[in-house]
Amino acid sequence: MNTSKPALLSIDAIDVHYGSVQALHGVSLHVNAGEVVSVLGGNASGKSTTLKSVLGLVTPTQGRIVLEHRDIQGSAPADVIDLGVASVPEGRRVFPDMSVEENLLLGAYPRRKHKAEIAQDLGEVFGTFPRLAERRKQLAGTLSGGEQQMLALGRAWLRRGKLVCIDEPSMGLSPRFVDAVYEVLFRWKAAGQTILLVEQNARIALELADRAYVLQHGHVVLQGNAADLAKDSAVQKAYLGAA
Question: Can you give the residue ranges of the ABC transporter domain (predicted)?
């Protein structure tokens, strides 16, 4: 972790309710500029709700969310995106009746006036994902799950956001596609991209992350350096398959 860089994102003691059910209990975390932070936990732990709170998809009932000194709690998702946040949602959420290229260009829509830069970035995405280049005019709904995840990553990259929020990128993918997805995420990390990652695959998430938080029943129960957490006996037993 590079402590010399300011916190790009700060989540301060947020509670989230779905009706009468409380999903998050005083969750706090921060992401420094240029850092990869992973949020781990099992089903119904609150990790995806944490990400949705940042993206404006749910509104906390208490606490604050600050992006670069700006309170974004209660902001609409479109406003959060306009502030420089990109999203790779769970389940990919591509537009099935639009082509691969059209889906990618939607990611660049906030930068639409910079056509030369977008064209260069589009070429970079196609270079990273040759399968997408081969299928650039194909409808996104006809792609495999792994190809759609590549498309979701490419769309987020074209946003060129200051922060990329990624929700369960390995879910439902074959080991081959998981490796391909994380190869790209490791490249993003090397390029200095700030990432907030929600992931059930704790082993690979801890390899990628600088720091991590572990959620259980909506509470942060562990946090720290990712390499240290990977050696933690509680994390190994719960998430890494250790006996």
Answer: 9-242
pLDDT tens digits for 206-231?
A: 999 999 999 999 999 999 999 999 99
All domains of the chain in start order, with CATH: 1-84+193-242 (3.40.50.300)
**Of 147, 217, 209, the residue nearest 230 (C-alpha):** 209
- CB neighbour burial string for 167-205, b if at least 16 within 10 angstroms, e if fewer: bbbbeebeeebbebbbebbeebbeeebbbbbbbbbbebb
Return the residue matching tokens 């992973």: 38
> pLDDT tens for residues 136-159?
999 988 998 888 888 998 888 888
Supply the Cα-derived Rg of the chain in whole angstroms. Answer: 18
DSSP string computed for 116-163? HHHHHHHHHHHHH-HHHHHTTTSBGGGS-HHHHHHHHHHHHHHHT-SE
Q: Is residue 92 within a helix (H) or strand (E), and if so which, with residue range?
A: none
Place of tokens 């922060």: 163
Q: Rounded to an integer, what distance in angstroms lies between the CA atom of residue 29 and that of residue 150? A: 28
Do 162 and 84 touch, CB atoms closer than 8 A?
yes
Tell me, what amino acid is at 232?
D
Neighbours of 6 (CB within 10 A): 11
pTM of the complete model = 0.87
**Across all residues in the chain, what is the average pLDDT?**
89
pLDDT at 240: 65
